[in-house]
Amino acid sequence: MSVSDDGEEIEGGFDLNSIMDASEPLTTKDFFALGVDEKLKVELIGGALTVSPSSRPWHGIVANHLARRLEDVLGEDFVVFTDLDVIVDEENVPRPDIFVIRRATYAPDKVTEAQNVILAVEIMSPGSQVNDRRVKPSLYRGAGIPSWRIERSGHRLLLVEVPVRGDEVAHLGQVVLDVAGVKVPVDLDAAAVKAFGT
Predict the structure, then answer these.
(1) CDD domains, per this entry (predicted)?
(2) Phi first, then psi: what are they for 5, rounded to 5°?
């Protein structure tokens, strides 16, 4: 993409330097106009761009394991996504590690909107602790989205359930959690064995 010195749109994009220097927060329209490579984990949080470093292999294994588990238990009435944008409002487009919607709300060519998300999951990496523990749970709660956070301690995994209202609840080992009225058994120790080999 070529850009002009004054930030004018050229060939479908914007001059990133001009946007980064802007005193006003970015909007979702600005964010999507950037045409950021889908392979990069760039999110719009509070009108500012945030970039997460590439995750470690264990993170991907846990995400894949949990996404498959959700697909198997929830069945055809739901769709499970990994690492895609969700529009929360005009200044927030997080990219949950996993999220679930009802199949009836699925639109193959549209970015998912928060009101259609019934669960968001974040798998915490060292570079995402503040966002995953504080910023995103608050953002999801404000949008009416229940969420889970997976944390690592050595070779064990902890799942923190963050309801829309009420206190967070931490789980170890085997747990059965409610996703839109469906009971989903989650075996954190089995996921840890796949991720860490112990």
Answers:
(1) DUF820-like
(2) -70, -20
Segments forming the whole domain that contains residue 109: 57-196
Domain contains 2: no
- CATH number, residue 152: 3.90.1570.10
Distance of CA 5 to the CA centre of its chain: 34
pTM (predicted TM-score): 0.86
39 in any annotated domain? no
Q: How many domains does the chain have?
A: 1
The count of other CB atoms within 10 Å of the CB of residue 55 is 18
102 part of a folded domain: yes
What pLDDT tens digit does each residue of the chain (198 aa) get?
A: 333 333 333 344 445 454 455 568 999 999 999 988 877 889 999 999 998 878 889 999 999 999 999 999 999 999 999 999 999 999 999 999 999 999 999 999 999 999 999 999 999 987 778 888 899 999 999 999 999 999 999 999 999 999 999 999 999 999 999 999 999 999 999 999 999 997
Is 79 part of any domain?
Answer: yes
State the DSSP string of 5-36.
Answer: TT---BTTB--HHHHHH-SSPP-HHHHHHT--
